[in-house]
Design a protein that fits this description.
This protein is of the alpha+beta class and 452 residues long. The chain is built from 15 helices and 13 strands. It folds into 3 domains: 117 residues, no CATH class; 115 residues, Roll (Chitinase A, domain 3); 99 residues, Chitinase A, domain 3 (Roll). Helix content is 47%, strand content 16%. Helix 2 crosses helix 3, helix 3 crosses helix 6 and helix 4 packs across helix 5.
Length: 452
Amino acid sequence: MKRGSRFLLMLAVLLLSGITAVRAQVLVESVAAIVGNEVIYLSDIESAVADAKRNGARESVSELRCLVLQQLLVQKLFLDQARIDSITISDSEIEGELNARLNDNIRTAGSEEALVTYFNKSITEIKQDVRKVLMEQATIREVQRSLAEDIKVTPNELRKFFATIPKDSLPVIPQKVQLSLIQLDPPQNEENKAEAREKLLNYRSQILEGKPFNILAIMFSEDPGTASSGGELGFKMRGELEKPYADAAFSLTKNTVSKIVETRYGFHIIQLIDRNGEMVNTRHILIKPKVKPNQAAVAMSRLDSIADLIRKDSMKFSDAALRFSTHKDSRINGGKFVSSDPSERDTWFTLEELNPEMYVKVRDLKIGEISDPFRTTDENNDVVFRIIRLDNEIPAHRANLKDDYQNLYSTALLNKQTKTYDDWVKKKIETTYIKISDEFKSCEFLTKGWIK
């Protein structure tokens, strides 16, 4: 099954109606299969197939019915094992994911009412269905975790795994670099921010006096994505908006205008057009602080002097970073540039992961060289000035054990875990009561131990 169709199928299964577990040992007309204490209803399969077809699945209906049944049968094996092992998931463990998933479904449908109409259920019923599916998914993950928690890949196993991969099938790993940087913010930047706020105060006053918000947005907003449409964003969930923007937007009543709101993109005034449950449609005017040419010149000159001191060995790069840099994540590490994701804190970057200005500077550097000063934007989209040093690089290459050990280890571990799950499923089939409707006897996968 192609990846796109598999994704659509998973989406369809996610939104299936709740499935009630019973101890029935005989099939009735509406039951497609029984796995231990778990039941798969024919309506569940038909709903998933219909959704997959609506979302563009190219497989035939008969193929999709077999694919859905196979997937549900395996899921039920894990759920039956969870019952045997007394594995349970509390509501609190999935509450955050539940709200996020429901909000995403509302956003995709366009509104809460559209979602209700699509499923012909109340929002409470839809939430119950999604909760049940998320509970089952979390339970399956817990069973899989217990099966795989002691699995490791030894160096010898990794070498054998690597040897099984045809050389022309090994992925090409792009060039990666390690960098250090020193960053300076524009001098007197608070003045620039004050000027941006002053502009917005003026526009807000004009709106309160009766001028149309959308006309001023077209004329003055610095958001290229929305200015031409009068600043309108369309319906958005809270999580899709910057937190300060969302907090302001959800506190407004229809057609009212917010006070000035600061986000990492600049300063906004916001008007609420409409609200639909947990979605808001707003328009805004964005003004970004402007760095003046003389401020840029001062920052660039200062960085040039710092770089000159380092090149002449009058100061170490790490000391200069600690003393002068305004980049909080790197300055305490001697300027070492690290991933902003706290779960990774990776120091290796492909050139494509760098912003355009850094990309241009890095590609021409040799290891140990320091770039000329340049203007760019930081992680908060603020204008900053930087010099960077290329500390190390790994050229583009075919994957190998020396340079890509961790990536290959993760792949080998996943392969070993998958085999463990597959072997477990085969054994579980042998010891579990399974009854499948004759309606699905043409499904080829059933010949692999499912029918006894």
